[in-house]
Amino acid sequence: MALAPKSDERSTVPPIGSARTFRWKTVLALIVMTVATLYEFMPVWGVLFLYWAWMNIKNKDTFLVERIQRSENPVLYWLIVAGWVVLAVLTFFPAYW
Known about the structure:
Layout: H1 24-38, H2 43-59, E1 61-64, E2 66-69, H3 74-92
Helix pairs in contact: 2-3
């Protein structure tokens, strides 16, 4: 026979859609990316590429198909980060590509 949990034994996981699980920055980024793509405003992508490069450097890992940590694969890590920076530059100067 199962006993009902005591009040202090309840799960602390918030329900789906609650305020604690809502990622407003991610939703905003998706909206901005969609609008930028519809209006062909590519500098927004450049800003995102620079942001991703900065966060990769700050966190010492990156993700391109799989997680790459700087400590484990430094050459591959820096190639991917450099790729984000090159893509950012290209979106700011589309006449050169």
